[in-house]
Amino acid sequence: LAQGFSRPARSTHPISSLSRAMSTVPAADLSKEQKDELVCTYAALILHDDGAEVTPQAMANLIKAANCTVESYWPMLMAKMINSVGMEALIKMGSGAGGGGGGGG
After folding, report:
1. What is the DSSP string of the chain?
2. Rounded to whole angstroms, how far apart are CA atoms 35 and 30?
3. Distances (CA, A) of 105 to 6, 9, 66, 98, 101
4. How confident is the model at residue 95, as a pLDDT?
5. pLDDT digits (tens, 9 = 90+) for 47-87
6. Which of 4, 18, 29, 72 fits a 20 to 30 Å CA distance from 38?
7. 36 Cα distance to chain centroid
């Protein structure tokens, strides 16, 4: 790890465990479905970070602009999930963020 950075506490949340496991796999070793999901995840994060609405069309446009392709149902599924659960909640689930206990004195 870079100097000054510490490893975050491990989460027992299943999504966090899956994310951690997938992050160690080279992109070339992912299945087509996993690559599609990853591309849509990045597109959604970019849109969210830019303050844009996460819609299937916006995701598809960004994916196309990046010279990537995904199965046509992926942007719709991801946008529906994001708009029903909320991007902030999904980011917290995927990051393992859960708030730690107070420090002892």
Report:
1. --TT--PPPP---HHHHHHHHHTTS-GGGS-HHHHHHHHHHHHHHHHHHTT----HHHHHHHHHHTT----THHHHHHHHHHHHH-HHHHHHHHHT---PPPPP-
2. 6
3. 21, 20, 50, 21, 12
4. 63
5. 999 999 999 999 999 999 999 999 999 999 999 999 999 88
6. 4
7. 12
